[in-house]
Amino acid sequence: AYMLKYDSTHGQFKGDIKVLSDGLEVNGKKVKFYTERDPANIPWAESEAYYVVESTGVFTTTEKAKAHLKGGAKKVVISAPSADAPMYVMGVNNETYKGDVDVISNASCTTNCLAPLAKVINDEFTIIEGLMTTIHSYTATQKTVDGPSAKDWRGGRTAAQNIIPSSTGAAKAVGKVIPELNGKLTGMSMRVPTANVSVVDLTVRIEKGASYDEIKAVIKKAADGPLKGILGYTEDDVVSTDMNGDNHSSIFDAKAG
Question: Average pLDDT in the 53-81 region?
Answer without folding.
Answer: 96
